[in-house]
Specification:
Layout (H helix, E strand, L loop, with lengths): L24 E7 L3 H14 L3 E4 L12 E4 L1 H10 L1 H8 L7 E6 L4 E6 H4 L6 E4 H14 L3 E3 L4 E5 L4 E4 L4 E9 L6 H6 L6 E13 L7 E6 L6 E8 L2 E9 L6 E4 L2 H5 L6 H8 L4 E8 L11 E3 L14 H16 L6 H33 L2
Parallel strand pairs: 1-2, 1-10, 2-7, 4-12, 10-17
Antiparallel strand pairs: 3-6, 4-5, 8-9, 9-10, 11-14, 11-16, 12-13, 13-14, 15-16
Helix pairs in contact: 1-5, 1-9, 2-3, 2-9, 9-10
Length: 375
């Protein structure tokens, strides 16, 4: 039987349909249904079989907005550990990126490499974010996770393990996991350390489709005299992900813009790159934020995960991978540590210690690469 007494094969647990169960308490409540939050829900259900609720402020229809994520070997390993069948569905049809190249906008190669020569068996594929979210949310639903959309968390109280929702309701939980992004309200309730650092950069992203448009190469093109960068990664044979970063700021979150905005940054770039942008159906704009590592990720029975714990700039492509690793580490720590509040607290602090060093290194290196390449 699934959570709330429903079998996993019941109509409410069909692929793509959220299972809704309106209990006011749960063994674990995860705030945020991004990649990290959903992965944690799946991992915890498998490792502990405790009741898990996921709270998502959006209505569920726009949760899957986004472009694509470069899935590196450590992320594939995490997907494999999470669920092999889901991993294979995400991998199916995606181009294996075999090489990389960095060029000047004016022409000329800065550097190039073959991934297999650097690391035998190296696997990097780009996967649309909406596919990952859809796969994980469906898997969570099938495992009996209580998915609640249109539920915006105002704050949490670690001392009573209570979640206060903007509609005035409250939810109690044995454990609260803040997976609600860089602007996490769970974090602000617990750490009270202010807003993340706004980078002086803006990012534009999109996906372009066309017959045979993709190669098996990841490309970056750098402007000769500014910090503007263009990059592209193949998704399938007929679909490619691209990004443009340059000086500027944008409101936190995602906005849709016309091609005019990124094209303004690419005056000195080759025309074929501009054509890719003009052919894109949707273009997303994001402001970029990060934080310096924090020694504290939680308090009492509250902890953080993913961008809520360690927001990082996208330069190393490790944000989603780090969140997936967090999810597995959290589930491992709690596998035998949920019998009482004391053991739960000890397990959460053990999880935080196990992830701090690796996550901090990636945060700092991502900022360092940004400083180096966006001078």
């Amino acid at each position: 039987m699934g959570f709330c007494g429903l079998p996993a094969t019941s109509p409410g647990a069909k692929r793509g349909r959220p299972l809704v169960c309106l209990a006011s308490s749960s063994d674990v409540v995860i705030v945020g249904s991004g990649i990290g939050g959903l992965a944690a829900a799946v991992a915890l259900r498998k490792a502990t079989n405790k009741s898990v609720t996921v709270l998502e402020r959006s209505n569920g229809e726009d949760v899957t907005d986004g472009t694509s994520i470069s899935v590196w070997p450590n992320a594939w390993a995490a997907f494999e550990a999470l669920d092999r069948d889901s991993c294979e569905r995400l991998r199916s049809g995606k181009v294996l990126v075999e090489s990389g190249k960095v060029m000047k906008a004016s022409g000329g190669v800065i550097t190039s490499w073959n991934f297999d020569q650097v690391w035998k068996g190296f696997e990097i594929r780009a996967v649309p974010r909406q596919e990952i979210i859809s796969e994980l949310s469906t898997l969570a639903t099938e495992l009996g996770v209580d998915m609640r959309y249109s539920t915006s968390v105002e704050r949490v109280d670690p001392s009573s393990s209570t979640i206060y929702v903007e509609d005035g309701s409250t939810i109690t939980a044995g454990i609260i996991v803040g997976a609600d992004g860089a602007g996490s309200r769970v974090r602000s309730s617990v750490l009270k350390d202010g807003s993340p650092t706004v980078a002086p950069l803006v990012a534009y992203r999109g996906i372009v489709e066309g017959k045979g448009i993709s190669t098996r190469q990841a490309l970056q093109v750098w402007d000769d005299s500014s910090s503007v960068r263009f990059g592209s990664v193949p998704i399938t044979e007929d679909k490619m992900y691209w990004f443009v970063t340059g000086p500027g700021t944008a409101p936190r979150g995602t906005s849709f813009v016309t091609s005019e905005e990124p094209l303004q940054l690419l005056d000195r770039f080759p025309e074929d790159l501009k054509d890719l942008i003009m052919k894109s159906k949707r273009i997303y704009r994001n402001g970029l934020v990060d934080r310096l590592p924090s020694l504290k990720w939680g308090e009492e029975t509250v902890t953080l995960l993913g961008d809520a714990a360690h927001p990082m700039l996208p330069n190393l492509g490790q944000g989603a991978a780090a969140a997936l690793e967090d999810a597995l580490a959290l589930a491992s720590a709690l596998q035998h540590g949920m019998d009482d509040p004391t053991s739960a607290k000890e397990a959460l602090r053990a999880y935080e210690r196990s992830r701090f060093k690796r996550a901090s290194i990636i945060q700092l290196r991502s900022r360092g690469v940004s400083n180096l390449t966006h001078w």
